[in-house]
Amino acid sequence: MSAGPKPANLAPKIRFRDPQIEMAHGAGGKASRRLVEGLFAPYFFATSTGPLADAAHLKINGAQMAVTTDSFVVKPLVFPGGSIGELAVNGTVNDLAVSGAKPEAIVLTLILEAGLRTEVLQAEIEAIANAAQQAGVRIAGGDTKVVEHGKADSMYITTTGLGSPLPGVEINPQSVRPGDKVLLSGPIGDHGITILLARGDLEMEGDLYSDTRSVFPLVEAMVRAAGPGIRWMRDPTRGGVATSLNELARDCGLGVVLSEGNIPVHDAVRGACELLGLDPLHIANEGQFLAVVAPEFADAALQVLQQTPGGEEARLIGEIREQPAGSVLVTTLYGGSRIVDMLVGDPLPRIC
Amino acid sequence: MKYVDEFRDPELITKAADEIRRLADPNRHYRLMEVCGGHTHAIYRFGLKDVLPENIELIHGPGCPVCVLPMGRIDDGLSVAADPNVIFAAFGDMMRVPGTQGSPLQHKARGMDVRIVYSPTDAIKLAKLNPQKHVMFFAIGFETTAPSTALTLQRAKAEGLHNFSVFCNHVTIIPAIRAILDSPDMRLDGFIGPGHCSTVIGCRPYEWIAKNENKPIVVCGFEPLDLLQSIVMILQQLQNGEAKVENQYKRVVPWEGNRAALKAMAETFQLRPYFEWRGLGFISQSALRIRDQYADWDAEQRFQIPGIRVTDPKAAQCGEVLKGVLKPAQCKLFGRECTPENPVGALMVSSEGSCAAYYNYEHRKANLVTSISASA
Which of A30, B46, B238, B257 could anchor a disulfide with B224, C-beta 3.0 to 4.6 Å? Predict the structure, then answer.
């Protein structure tokens, strides 16, 4: 028996002190970050110091690959503009895309509740197949488990995605510099508000559809036009744009300054947010991404996004500054400003 | 978006801000209190402090119903719902408010049946959907929300719905303003009057502030232009040596209030002799209880309520902040032990609480170099 290297995780330093798991820990905001950084990372990533990304880029036997995984528990299963199956493909495809990888294949895990109607399942399998075809990924395999009636809400899906890193682009929050520009691929909040209205609890209606789609065509076009200038990308899902940019601000130690007038938001989303006291910056998206681009590449990046189908509403929404270090500041058209923090709590559970 | 965009128009806002600069005497320091938590939230959310001259100081008042609710009331309400046959229903604002054993959300995570409702009538629906259970609606709010609770009580009685009750924590705004004005360490030049609760009570109940206390009060809307216009109106009064009640929020607030709402409240509620306010202590005739004719729907009469009293942590200086004596960041716990995620004091809980609003929108901006405004 040989004395191998001493395991690094003998006494992981656990900073997570919450006594129990609550919905907020799955909301993608502050509590989620505390859980991942305070409990998971000390066990799994004790030796790595880098910030956590959407997908891991690995080198295995000399071959580069990107891998990511995501689970979907959205309620209701079907909503205007999409369904859980479509979301399960696009969500994972997008995590690969914004890590700078071309999505190649998906492995699928289904957890089904006994009593689920076959036609409901079949509709979702069809949605998965269609979304995979549209995104250009193949379903490489999967696993199915069934639990007793009442122990799961119809169906949960986990997708694991494999991708090949795109040459000429490297995503790293620590490469972000003051003066860099922040781009957004299109209007925000559609998915979160669509789900909220689809639940019917609010007796509100709106002409809104989930934005679920693969953002890879947009990412690919931007990489081709401005690859060396792209420093960071993220798809702002749970917790919204505010949470993604706060994570960036913390990871790079700089300030993100947005100008409110440039952030595209559909009127129906704005209206619902006004009524409910929500900030569109905290609402989930499933078909948008954020990019931080070096200033000399910003025009080219924005132009190519706006010329690519689905990117017409892309905007330059802000820039990176020295201050407020580690925070996101939104400036208004009339000279006011406010700090926008990560999402705290969970205004709306189970949106994806 | 109609009724929103025109009140956020950059040109009009700049004009109003210029007018404030013109009216404000540079040798004078103005202390104006916005009574309502909705205003506090709007002031921070729209970054209005950046627009106002430095000698206009906004003091955040007691008008945040979640913030002034004593922790013992939450414990009392949750104690009823410890019975597995009881569903605890409340507005979303209540969900993260801590009791001594955790917030309603934390109780839910441990298995308590806690539901978010968007109006008290949703709670009635819930009761009809769950006839084998009892639904208790945990009611909070000033006169803004009290009428909808009143109508719900009337409806429950009319329909003979017996698996439903209300745990009433409704409070009234005027005694709170009086308590603030009676406080010896308070120096105020005028009030930005509450908008929402004035839609119910109207503008007349504020007349004593103008008459007896000689302070201007302007009932105000919630958009940036509303707030700036109201400040213009207060400054005009001060400049002219006047003190009167004015209504800036005419598009919503009728001078006489809403008679139907007041009637429903009078029929279902009566004043409690006294009620405890978090941070302010006991204030006489400052809260509503359910009338005996509605005893069957009054959770406090139907269930054994332990009547828990919890004193706030000594280090928390909520009372001073609530009265505007201290700024949120001057409290010893602010941003350290007390954050929106783990609130110690009440003002950190609701987004309308001044500490939470300050923490969310302003904190970390305080030490910003001027480069932001220079290069924006």
Answer: B46
CATH of the domain at A103: 3.30.1330.10
pLDDT tens per residue across span A211-253:
999 999 999 999 999 999 999 999 999 999 999 999 999 999 9
Mean pLDDT to the nearest integer, B121-132: 95
Q: Do A219 and A201 belong to one domain? A: yes
Report the complex ipTM. 0.79
* Same domain assignment for residues A150 and A197: no
Sign of the Cα pseudo-torsion (B173, B176, B181, B182, in order): positive
Q: Same structural domain for residues A59 and A44?
A: no
Q: Average pLDDT, stretch B305-328?
A: 83
Burial of B57 (0-12, 13-18, 19+ CB in 10 A): middle
Range(s) of the domain holding residue A302: 173-339
Shared domain for A155 and A210, answered yes or no, is no
Domains for chain B: give ranges and CATH numbers. 5-61+175-241 (3.40.50.11750), 71-173+257-302 (3.40.50.11740), 318-361 (no CATH)
Calpha distance A256→B211 (Å, rounded): 49
Angstrom distance (rounded) from CA A23 to CA B96? 12
Radius of gyration of chain B (CA): 21
Q: How many domains does chain A have?
A: 3
Cβ-based interface (< 8 Å): residues of B facing A: 1, 4, 8, 10, 13-14, 17, 44-51, 92, 95-96, 105-106, 109-110, 118, 122, 224, 340-341, 351, 359-365, 368-369, 371-373, 375-376
Percent of chain B with pLDDT over 90: 61
CA angle centred on A284, ends A279 and A289, rounded to 5°: 110
- Beta carbons of A228 and A302 less than 8 angstroms apart: no
Mean pLDDT, rounded, for A89-101: 97
